[in-house]
Amino acid sequence: xxxxxxxxxxxxxxxxxxxxxxxxxxxxxxxxxxxxxxxxxxxxxxxxxxxxxxxxxxxxxxxxxxxxxxxxxxxxxxxxxxxxxxxxxxxxxxxxxxxxxxxxxxxxxxx
Length: 111
Fold this sequence. Notes:
4-stranded antiparallel β-sheet; 111 residues; Alpha-Beta Plaits; alpha+beta; globular; 3 helices; two-stranded antiparallel ribbon
């Protein structure tokens, strides 16, 4: 099953940095195991463009739509057997310590 893993900042990171995993090791292990299909760091929120259509009119705004302290800073597309495996992969990611990880299953639109 495919899962999108949103890597986010958090206003209350773990203060114990000693046990935080290494990102390069996390990427290498999950790439080698075939669990990580794709991943990337995102540009900062200031580089975002928000696109909306209201009453047929295109509205383009620089930056994020809402002010927030917690932002998505990256993503990884995972292939895992189930949610338990996806949680284990997310738990081992450094940002589960310094930020937060949101996992969502992809919906199969072919069914």
